[in-house]
Structure formats: structure tokens, C-alpha cells
């Protein structure tokens, strides 16, 4: 839960920042922090003894975790937009 | 972004395999807590700095939430299905699918908050989702409707997959796509945190 608190503090402070240049700096901070965390994750997985087996397993599991949410979101959004967005906007958006 | 993060993952894997013991690296891997907080703080600032989102939300009324709502609901159910298929606890599984395509944040956060295996599944699956979106968007635009193009893109519909929306859909859908991305991105860290706090079965 503490990550939400940290994020909320960021949102409040972000509201007061009007300097557009800071956006670029902020994006760089995000990129560097992400790279470090992903890098540390790599070291952790790489140092496991059964790394090769683990990798094959992770690949298959990741595929399941990719295909199911993606397909399901397409189906749900298609039916929701077909049902609830039938006004002018939809006519404009269709072929 | 993809090349940097994937390179970081590969270099990290090699260092892990070779079992290199470098002081600086130990310092980094032992202080990932602080880095996660910096990341979340920075994500918060990005959201806070967005101009005019509230005005656009008012302009489009409640209908603007239909698409992100659909994507979030689909992620929850997908998390439960994936949990049954892979035997990963349902709260971890739902946290992974809550990434909604934002592979860098979900991978980094979950590797820290759960473990490196869950983090890498979140990273790889959400990266696959983003790449797949590039190929499927033109097909969805023809076969389904423009709005549905936003679904596979999830939280990435405001940045990385936006050029595909510009090319294959219309202006109206592009605006919805940006707002959907902002809403989904806002919810990714919140949903991950909520899912991880769900009681284990």
C-alpha cells in the first residue's frame, strides 16, 4: 500500500509543477529507475541454479498471461462499445 | 524504452549466471526499495502534471470510462483464469494481468514486491501484449470497431501504441485512446497494490 501513498504524494506535487522542462527530466528519472529494477530482476533470475529450466517455464507462463487478458479485453470492450457507444461518435468511427 | 529495458534484463541475467560479485552491483540490488519509491513518486508526478484531463473527461461524460472499465474488468477475470491454468496464487496472477501492457512498471514493481519470477512473467507477458497490439490493431479496426483497437493496447494506448491509433482509426478514437491510457496507467500501480493485498485462498 505504501507505493500508492508515494504515488499520491507525487500526484499532488506534480499538480503544482508548471515547468514543462521538468517533464523530460522526470521521464529520464522513470527510465533510469525502471532500468535499474529490471536489471536487478535479471541478476536475481540469472543467479538461480536451475536457470535454464526456469526460463523455459517463464516463457510458457508469460505467453498464457499475455494471450488471455489481451483476447478477453478485446471481447469485453467490443461488446461494451457496441452496446453503449451507439450514438453519433460510433457512426463517425465506423467504416 | 524496449531496447533499454530488454538490454538491462539480458545484462542482468548474464551477471547473475556468471555470479559476478561487484560492490556497486550489490549496492544497487540491495537498495531496490528506494528505487521503487523513486519510480512511483516519479509516476505520480507524471500523472499530476497532465493538463486538461479533467476538462476532457467532463466533455466526453461518463462514456469515457466504458473502455478503461472494460479493460480493467477483463484483466481481473483474465487473472483468475490464468491462476487456474498456471497454479500461480490468484492475487499474484491478478496483479500480473493488472499490468495492462505496461511491462516496465509492472515487471519492476512485482519483481520487488513479490519475487523475480513473478516480476519476469509480468515483464514478458505485458511486453508481448504491447508488441502484439501493433500487429492486431489494423485487423481490429477492419473487423470489429475503432474503439476496440484500444483494448489490446491497454495502458500503452497513450504512448507507445498511439501511432497505430493515429494511422488506423480516427481522431475521435485517438482522443479516447489517450484518455484511456491515462486512466489505465493511473490504475496500474493501484490495482497491483490492491491485488497483492487480497487474502490468499
Short recap of the structure:
The complex is a heterodimer of chains A (95) and B (201). Chain A folds into 2 domains: 47 residues; 45 residues.
How would you describe this structure to a colleague?
The complex is a heterodimer of chains A (95) and B (201). By secondary structure, chain A is mainly α. Chain A has 2 domains: 47 residues; 45 residues. Chain A is 85% helix and 0% strand. Chain A is built from 4 helices and no strands. Chain A is flat. The C terminus of chain A is likely disordered. Chain B has 201 residues and is mostly helical. Chain B has one domain. Chain B contains 11 helices and no strands. In chain B, α6 packs antiparallel against α11. The interface between A and B is large, with 70 and 98 residues.
Give keywords.
heterodimer; A: 95 residues; mainly alpha; 2 domains; 85% helix; flat; disordered C terminus; B: 201 residues; 11 helices
> How is the main sheet of chain A built?
none
Poorly predicted segments of chain A: 90-95
Q: Main β-sheet of chain B: number of strands, strand sense, barrel status?
A: none
SS element count, helices of chain B:
11
Of all chain pairs, the largest interface belongs to:
A-B, 70 and 98 residues
Please give the oligomerization state of what you see: heterodimer
Distance between the termini of chain A: 45 Å
Task: Kindly state the number of beta strands of chain A.
Answer: 0
Elements of chain B, N to C (H/E):
HHHHHHHHHHH
- Helix-strand pattern of chain A: HHHH
Strand content of chain B: under 5%
Give the overall shape of chain B, derived from the CA principal axes.
globular
Q: Which structural class should the secondary elements of chain B be placed in?
A: mainly alpha
Structural class of chain A: mainly alpha
List the helices and strands and how they pair.
The complex is a heterodimer of chains A (95) and B (201).
Chain A: H1 2-16, H2 21-46, H3 51-84, H4 88-93
Chain B: H1 2-18, H2 23-30, H3 32-49, H4 53-60, H5 66-86, H6 90-97, H7 103-113, H8 116-143, H9 150-153, H10 162-168, H11 171-196
Helix pairs in contact in B: 3-7, 5-6, 5-11, 6-8, 6-11, 7-8
